[in-house]
Amino acid sequence: MDAWLDRLRKEITDSAANLTGDDWTRAPQGRWDSARIMEHLARTYGTTAKMLELWMEAGGAPQVRPAKLSESFFRILIIRLGVFPSGVKAPAMVQPRGDSGPVAYQRALDNLQRMELALKSAEARWGNNQPIAMHPFLGPLSPEEWRAFHYRHGHHHIRQMRKRLAG
Predict the structure, then answer these.
(1) Cα–Cα distance for residue pair 93/25, rounded to 1 Å
(2) What span, in angstroms and rounded, lies between the C-alpha atoms of 36 and 161?
(3) In the chain, is it the N or the C terminus that has fewer CB atoms within a 10 Å radius of its CB?
(4) Which structural domain range is residue 64 located in?
């Protein structure tokens, strides 16, 4: 596995492997609990994997457009500088739907592995330096940018989980 995603897998495992039922459901009023956070992460990895798998099946070159200025700004902020803004509403396709914490945790690990395989396949076909797919907020991303994005995004949410568990 890639260094970004290796590190992400370790953070996910370290933060969630020993959680109890109450730990999974602890959250401030109106905020996602750890089970919802983990399910959201699982859905993001699964969605990225599926998107790449579909592009690979189609066989053609990736359909990407040049980045808009706002996308370039957020790509630099998040991927290059590691600043992940809070309060951005997740797209409907990656919103949690009610998986239990242990189910979401296993799914996150499984989808992370699936996503890494899809990224490796896309990278082998199209290279690592050119965009391979569009992100809804960051625009066109290369395989390495997808890995860095998912690490930054996952790290942001793992920190939220740790805060909920700390008190």
Answers:
(1) 22
(2) 10
(3) C
(4) 3-9+33-87+98-166
